[in-house]
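seq/struct pair 1
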Amino acid sequence: MREYEILFVTEINDALHQKAKDHIKTILQNYKAEIFHEADYGVHNLSYPIRKVEQGKFHYYHFKCDGNNLAAIEKELRYELSILRFIVVRLDEIIQKESKKKKRVKETEETTSKEA
């Protein structure tokens, strides 16, 4: 099981936003995903209009699920009309890249301190 994040955008309408949040939570629970954290990121201007909408309300979920279920989760999210856009990111790759970067920086610092 791997960790993922979903960030999605809906219209500003609170009823639509709540419907989308509930629907995504239901989808994740149906696929046995374990939700760690959820956050409401508020209303922001969009870079470009999506379906003639200039502002969107953003919401975030951090969860863990089986990678085989991810394609099915994304497919169901595409059919939710209240969601303007969404992105799913796998966190373990990001965490590994950051730890490698920290390791390289630490090694560089050690070699420069030994040379001095």
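seq/struct pair 2
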Amino acid sequence: MSTLRIFDTATRSQREFEPVRPGHASIYLCGATPQSQPHIGHLRSGVAFDILRRWLLAQGYDVALVRNVTDIDDKILTKAAENNRPWWEWVSTYEREFTKAYNTLGVLPPSVEPRATGFVTQMVEYMQRLIDAGFAYAVPGEDGAGSVYFDVAAWNATEGSDYGALSGNRVEDMEQGESDAVGKRSPQDFALWKAAKPGEPSWPTPWGKGRPGWHLECSAMSTYYLGGEFDIHCGGLDLQFPHHENEIAQSHAAGDKFANYWMHNHWVTMAGEKMSKSLGNVLSIANMLEIVRPVELRYYLGSAHYRSVLEYSEAALTEAAAGYRRIEDFVGKFEGVEKGQWTAAFEDAMNDDIAVPKALAEIHTTVRAGNKALGEGNREEAERLAGAVRVMAAVLGFDPLDEQWKDSGEESGADAALDVLVRAELERRTTARAEKDWATADAVRDRLAAAGITITDTADGPTWSLAD
């Protein structure tokens, strides 16, 4: 029996998973900053680490997964102002959209989903610890406002400092990318707390009014729920620097051991470019579901290794959907079949840093073996293999017989596309009848009938349905 090995970004090596508490797995996942509709680039992270969680659960671990919501941020404030809406309404609107998207793709709900603005007290305590230790400093602002910065030079000069180790950057080359730098001692320093600006939301602290810095919130929330030392910290590759590098620095400087493993999923790209709003190549979840069913989109987003680039194309998406349907068609031949036992090859694949491509290959190998057994008249063996397929597919989150996907085919993208095509034919028929072009009208009717589509003429115009 193999054991789970995880590629740890911090050490750039695969390490055997050894939890802080035997039998328990604690995971923190950097969640959404809801400012607009979620796209498949956002959801890849959710799906990738949902598979990790499902595998840990399948192995008998008690899993605690914390996925935060950054509900205060420069971009949120800008978007809300541009649309003349309250910031809290704006972020809540799109937080619901993210939740809907996660649910649609079968991502298990997190154990808890804290919002940054609900943890100001913990952030103040964290800043006080850092100031007392000499690794942070306050900068008074105007009208009772105030900022607090992390002192990178002070921390970097301390024995045991590992600043830059996660991302591989040299300290002198690091740029935080922060627009507000009033009172900073060095460009390398980063904001723990941002001084209040006129018209912006703020909270009182001993150092003045302001709002959370991006990095501080995650240290405060993760350690509040999971403790000063926990197992796995997850997030997108683009978060390595500055976000995760700064999380490590402030947490270690405050005396917390923090995360023991760091896992980063790669991007979804299109035409070689990272999926992002600014590039204008965003593919929303709603748009994707015009092409494939939710379960097929999940299959696609989880199909590549989480550390590999997922290059989007409609051809790749539809090919993945066809792959899922081969699994679905096989399992569907055994209504009510119970989940069986995964294969040794599947277990080895999952324990090899969650190698989903290898795991999928094993599922398809099992499907082929099952169809072969069925063709040879060995239904008992085929049913046993169908049970194995079910349990393996469940680990990856797309068990065809799961209640989650029971109605997945209703009003799918394929149905919508068919409706558009049939209605175009019906309009052609209506025009032909109005012009007394009976030959064309009959040809349209016959063509649709040959495709299994029945036309019914009503007082409100023609309707169509699939023939029984």
